[in-house]
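ping. complex inputs:
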Amino acid sequence: MEIAKAARKAANTLKTLSNDKRTSALKAIHDHLRDHKDIILESNRLDLQLAEQADLSPALIKRLDLNKGDKFDVMLQGVLDVAALEDPVGRQSILRELDDGLVLERVASPVGVLLVIFEARPEVIANIGALAIKSGNAAILKGGKESSHTFQSMAEVIRTALAKTSVPTDSLQLIATREKVADLLHCDKYIDMVIPRGSNELVRSIKRSTTIPVLGHADGICSIYANKDATAEMAAEIIVDSKTNYPAGCNAVETVLIHQDTQFDVLRSILVALLDAGVTVKLEHNLYTRAREALPDEPKIVEAAEEDFDTEFLALTVAVKYVESLQEAIDHINEHGSHHTDCIITENALDAAAFQKGVDSAGVFWNASTRFADGYRYGFGTEVGISTNKLHARGPVGLEGLMSYQYLLKGKGHIAGNYVGAGGNRHFTHKDL
Amino acid sequence: MEIAKAARKAANTLKTLSNDKRTSALKAIHDHLRDHKDIILESNRLDLQLAEQADLSPALIKRLDLNKGDKFDVMLQGVLDVAALEDPVGRQSILRELDDGLVLERVASPVGVLLVIFEARPEVIANIGALAIKSGNAAILKGGKESSHTFQSMAEVIRTALAKTSVPTDSLQLIATREKVADLLHCDKYIDMVIPRGSNELVRSIKRSTTIPVLGHADGICSIYANKDATAEMAAEIIVDSKTNYPAGCNAVETVLIHQDTQFDVLRSILVALLDAGVTVKLEHNLYTRAREALPDEPKIVEAAEEDFDTEFLALTVAVKYVESLQEAIDHINEHGSHHTDCIITENALDAAAFQKGVDSAGVFWNASTRFADGYRYGFGTEVGISTNKLHARGPVGLEGLMSYQYLLKGKGHIAGNYVGAGGNRHFTHKDL
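pong. complex structure:
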């Protein structure tokens, strides 16, 4: 509770600081992290040792290791990149004269206090810390326990750096225990947004435990629908890229729907391309029977169960089924998908438009890989996360996802009672300036 | 649960309908309500009788009465006014070439399914129903039990009207019991937003009981700060208007902060103006002592208790205290206010700017009555409510508060694997069109 109060207090100051002051603080953080690389890497080695002793998975250990390749330098550069972004604070979205001398302005302002919960990767603390300060938000950070020594060490370095700047040191606070997170999830008076970065289970459990808005996505069940006119080559290429480019990504495809009137060689091309790429293909009963006949000895062809069409495989596995119509494809996606990103492959512009109108997902694509659903690829400069919420930020979220807005009204002693509807007879001019 | 599923199904169709079709449906609702005025008013008389027998308050009975003055005709005109608004669906906010032939578009789309909970006033069903259909959203409506016969009758008329249009009848569903609301508040798979329109207690209890985003405000504790250079006349006029123009409004002022170095006659003018307007003034100890000396026999001058500065009086009562500085005023408002609308009275532009930067509320005003915080006055055409949330919609919310957005990407078979960062060497062009 004290942590949340301190964060709110810091946020109230941070909100008033100029871009110059916020940017200088980021440079100070960058320099300090660079100058204390040795100390940080020492703590990181301790975490790595403990992880090895605890027999954690090689994948996790790889994520922990801050000395791997150019990870440390990339992290440092990331802080400078965020510092160089355009200032998101104060951007004007309305400027309107309500009456002579009475002017309304709507400007972007920080959300306030963020609670960011993430797992093993230690560089996230620098990345998220930079995004928070750049956007004028205070952040409370909770990292996975596997990286606790690295986090502790980085947090100290960052706080020391901030102490010499105008940005209050409590703008970035690190917490260590799960119990504290549980407490903080109830502090809706002081915390404005929770950002979980980690497994689906983490996101789901946080969404269940708080009434504070949660930015993120629990699932990424993306679908691709091949319309009856889809060409074999394009369908195969897009589906293989969407599945195999990064199978652990939330924007990887998990379900493929094929119009039952497509030519058999479209189906065959898709299957062969997937199999060649090492993908296990789970086919719905009808399709399975046909495919088994054509490819009797292929071990990676499997009959799908019903729940496969509600599953995020996050692996080289995909579920495939026939649909009778475009509408059935749309209905299937709206019911079974996770409203993340879905795609239609077709040459028919009317069908594409109907699909893009009908599918209720953050991204609805036409003849393009689902893997394009990404803040960098969309040109946002940076990515805070991908949201399957419909309110506030949806889809890939850039710095603007950390912004709210405020209405500033400037008058000369104007009172409402002089206007029509509130007792007077003056009319509003409502003239955009 | 069935209700929520049916609403989702209706929303999926409604989302695809053109503005013409949605607008025609509103005209059909208007005509049908007009043609069945007698039946509706008969049900309304029954509700009124029951309310009188149950000895409900005259204020409540007045809100119930649909035959009072031109209320019915105003309601009918309201439906046509909403029909005439610009179509909010499909408005483009990004149009960007990511690469040759790969174009990203961001367009406004309906949120989906709204759960609207309101109290006695029966005309709200037509008003909210019209806003929902115009914006492509399905709505589940729950009205207060005092108007149940009127609601039932209006809902039937509206469903009969919709049955003859392209808008699915389940786009507007009425529910009658509290138990059903409790169930629906858990249907986060099917319901996207809850809009409570009613008492603070209603809003607070709903916010506590759901993880679905709630649009609205529980409290409206607005403050006005008179800076040390505030002039007596402007301060008195703005404060009196903010308090008395509509004391039950959420944008009425509840707390007045006065810089302790203001001239005594500024304080005196404010007090006298408030007392003349029939306002009870609760003064913090120091101020109370001074005011008592000057106006010894004034019964409407009362010493304030601490909790008066955390109270929304919703009546002709205001709490007043001295502050030592502009910063103390800002801190007081951020801590004790409800982040709705606050105002500074000053001729000093630097102090005004510091106040507008430092106060973390939806509206931060300078020399203007807090009563201007209103969708109509801001020029939004209509008002869905006023939000003290920081995410999604903040402040007075027009039709755009019922909108989300989607990313539509159109390619020609583009795959991510060809681009830098995902295994290839092509670069994005990121050119806004």
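Chain B has two domains: 2-89+107-215+384-402, 222-372.
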